[in-house]
């Protein structure tokens, strides 16, 4: 155990490395709280990716054309991959994947509020790609510069894929908005339902965000929740206008003085209700996740048995060489 003076010295050195934009790697010394913060954020992020497969998975068999189906399948598979990289990044900090999944399945871990809303029509798949992946990119591009090396590097690939996801969603919305009256109505209805939950994805207002100050000092986060939310509104409002859809916010207006869009108040009661497990689909999502995990047990068993057989074969080969 380090004496307090040694510890303070190590913490100063650690902060100096962060300030100098050096990456922190798994075997480097780090304060316990830095490790815990990263495990919390990265595991919540990983859970969001795999729970995030469910609302869209709902439409894979009902996509309106082969092209749409192939693109949606690829997107949902990408999200499984993102979950894998992220659980892998959390493991480099000493977390056990089984423990993280247990936390998710018992309802103790958080995942993004957005995935607790239902996908009622095909247009919701467009709205998710455009808005949810759009918000995700806004939040994740700065994470490519996160101070923790494995998380930052995982984010580079994730962001490339998210950008394809965002474009496929926007293109679906564009097509519907230029389609029949009924299609345009469907697109507008999806925008109406997904707009506010997308703004909530960025997390509570800065004044209510308990982790932001420390995470910014450690350069895990590069921008605050409100900064990223504002950027998202600034970029998305003209996109809605371009495709002829109306964002459901009577206060939304470009402000010449600030150079940003003003927008109306967010319903934080709804946000906290969803985060605490009382959203429209929380129970359904956890049930589906638990079932997928149980039904996948044989795959994990088979993979472990295969790895063990390979290990034994390689050990036997080594023994033969020595003999
Ligand atoms: N939903 O102090 P704060 C995706 C929690 S996946 C639920 O601001 P922080 C995608 C927060 O965890 C999208 N909970 O926290 C996938 C904290 O609770 P705890 C996920 C939320 O960490 C498939 C408390 O509220 N993206 O893009 O500084 C298909 C106070 O918040 C939410 C990531 O995970 C929320 N929306 O900032 C398509 C990105 N917001 O832990 C797309 C990585 C906040 O103290 N994560 N909370 O119990 C981050 O950047 C940050 O963790 C956040 C929150 C900005 C989300």
UniProtKB/TrEMBL annotation:
GO molecular function, one term: phenylacetyl-CoA 1,2-epoxidase activity
Superkingdom of the organism of origin: Bacteria
GO cellular component: cytosol
Coiled-coil region: none
Gene3D superfamilies referenced in this protein's UniProt entry, alphabetically: 1.20.1260.10
UniProt cross-references to Pfam families, sorted A to Z: PaaA_PaaC
GO BP, sorted A to Z: phenylacetate catabolic process
Protein name according to UniProt: ATPase AAA
Organism in which the protein naturally occurs: Phaeodactylibacter xiamenensis
